[in-house]
Amino acid sequence: MGRNDKLLDRLDPKDLSHYDCLITKAFQAKRKIETGFIELAESILEINTKKLYKLKYKTFSEFCEEELGFSRQTIYISILKLINSFPNYFPKDVAVEFGHKKMRYITEGASAVDKIISDDEGRKKIKLSIFQSISPTMPSTEIEAKIEDILSAL
Fold it and tell me: Would 126 be classed as within a structural domain?
């Protein structure tokens, strides 16, 4: 005969404590990931700029594929250059708040502007309009759509 006193449905204080510990651990790990992409970008940029990859590899791409296990190294450099070029819009803490995926969309949008607009002042104006129309709290799909709308109007 089964129990019907809902004893098994009650919260165990030990489970709640364990849950709180796991949530804290998850938030800490998430924060490491969020800040890690900027640290990765800084390291990759310095290795590329100083040509340190030549100590073991013929090309920068070969270094990235062999040592880091990915070939999209240029996006990290592009993100860092964007952060350094527009520090008022993307101080490191704000870039971390945006996260890697959103920063990738922003960087790709800025790169597209560079290809479409020929004069420096025009490029800067369009980029600033993009930066002013987005925020870290927006979903990445909304950021991507906002950037696409601005680009398609050019």
Answer: yes
Q: Report the phi/psi class of residue 78: left, alpha or beta, with left for phi > 0 and alpha for psi in -120 to 50.
A: alpha
pTM of the predicted model as reported, rounded to 2 decimal places: 0.67
Q: Answer yes or no: is 7 within a domain.
A: no
Range of the domain at 123: 15-152
- Tokens 């490029």 found at: 123
Domain annotation covers residue 8: no
Per-residue tens of pLDDT for the chain, all 154 residues: 555 555 556 666 667 787 888 888 888 887 787 778 888 888 888 898 899 999 999 998 888 888 887 765 677 788 888 998 999 999 888 988 898 889 989 999 999 999 999 999 999 999 999 999 999 999 999 999 999 999 999 8
